[in-house]
């Protein structure tokens, strides 16, 4: 790890070390992965304009997100099932975000619960939320996140129809048997059944609300009386 000089090098190392099903889940997109490539291309088009003869002896990259001060304009986006990659999973990510002075957004489909992540120590944390058909499940998740000290809800809006993730289909992706979606433990929603194609696709089709619209978003906000901020995420 000491030889890594560029963040892109992590992907090559991960491909060597992780099981193919796990690596493909993290690394791939849907269908021809056109959107995935376009996202990378979009970042590559962002240029920094150098300012010449400016005092740079003290550089301050601090900024704020929803009123929370962070050390740099970089946050950790929600990534599901992190313990597939390492036993520490979301624990390590939470500690790293706190040490770096930035925000971690915890996935609903994490392999550590909101309470477990909160127990790792102080830090500014947001919670990424999927809207399930069973609104009681959604309400429970929001309340638990609030009690655990999470400061905002990142509401995912692009999952009612999951993209056709071809790598997951080929690998017959499912959550390894020694792991669960910890936020759903005890609700009979913490496991993914094996399927003829993708266990994730079958799970989403069975649980996530396909009728999600702006009307639902307003109802959710009013019914649950959020005490934290809400932002849309895709």
Overall description:
With 234 residues, this protein is of the alpha/beta class. It has a single domain, classed as TIM Barrel (Alpha-Beta Barrel). It contains 9 helices and 6 strands. The strands form 2 sheets. The chain has a 4-stranded parallel β-sheet. Strand 3, helix 5 and strand 4 form a beta-alpha-beta unit. The longest helix has 13 residues. The protein starts with 8 loop residues before the first helix and ends with a strand.
Tell me, briefly, the overall form: globular
CATH architecture title: Alpha-Beta Barrel
Number of domains: 1
Q: What is the typical, i.e. mean, pLDDT?
A: 90
> Tally the helices: what do you get?
9
Q: Describe the biggest sheet? A: 4 strands, parallel
- Approximate strand percentage: 5-15%
Please give the share of residues in helix.
Answer: 25-40%
Strand order of the largest sheet: 3-4-5-6
Rg, Å, rounded: 19 Å
CATH topology label: TIM Barrel
Strand elements, count: 6
Structural class: alpha/beta
- The SSE string, one letter per element, is HHHEEHEHEHEHHHE
Alpha carbon gap, first and last residue: 31 Å
Q: CATH H level: which superfamily? A: Aldolase class I
Quaternary state reads single chain
Task: List low-pLDDT spans.
Answer: none
Please write the CATH class name. Answer: Alpha Beta
GO molecular function, one term: FMN binding
Keywords: Flavoprotein, FMN, Glycolate pathway, Oxidoreductase
Domain FMN hydroxy acid dehydrogenase: 1-234
Protein name: FMN hydroxy acid dehydrogenase domain-containing protein
Write the layout of secondary structure elements.
Blueprint: H1 9-17, H2 20-27, H3 34-44, E1 63-65, E2 68-70, H4 89-100, E3 104-106, H5 114-118, E4 125-129, H6 135-147, E5 152-156, H7 166-171, H8 199-207, H9 214-224, E6 229-233
Parallel strand pairs: 3-4, 4-5, 5-6
Antiparallel strand pairs: 1-2
């Amino acid at each position: 790890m000491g030889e890594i000089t560029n963040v892109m090098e992590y992907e090559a190392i991960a491909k060597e070390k992780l099981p193919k099903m796990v690596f493909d889940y993290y690394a791939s997109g849907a269908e021809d992965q056109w959107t995935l490539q376009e996202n990378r291309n979009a970042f590559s088009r962002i240029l920094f304009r150098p300012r010449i003869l400016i005092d740079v002896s003290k550089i301050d990259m601090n900024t704020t997100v929803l009123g929370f001060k962070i050390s740099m304009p970089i946050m950790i986006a929600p990534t599901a099932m992190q313990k597939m990659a390492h036993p520490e999973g979301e624990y390590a990510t939470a500690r790293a975000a706190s040490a770096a002075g930035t925000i971690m957004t915890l996935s609903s489909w994490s392999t550590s619960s909101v309470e477990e992540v909160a127990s790792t120590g102080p830090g500014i944390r947001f919670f990424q939320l999927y809207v399930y058909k069973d609104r009681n499940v959604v309400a429970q998740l929001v309340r638990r996140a609030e009690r655990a000290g999470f400061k905002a809800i990142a509401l995912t809006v692009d999952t009612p129809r999951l993209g056709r993730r071809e790598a997951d289909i080929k690998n017959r992706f499912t959550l390894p048997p020694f792991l669960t979606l910890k936020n759903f433990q005890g609700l009979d929603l913490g496991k993914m059944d094996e399927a003829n194609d993708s266990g994730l696709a079958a799970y989403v089709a069975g649980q996530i609300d396909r009728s999600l619209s702006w009307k639902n978003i307003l109802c959710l906000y009013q019914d649950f009386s959020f005490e934290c901020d809400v932002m849309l995420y895709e």
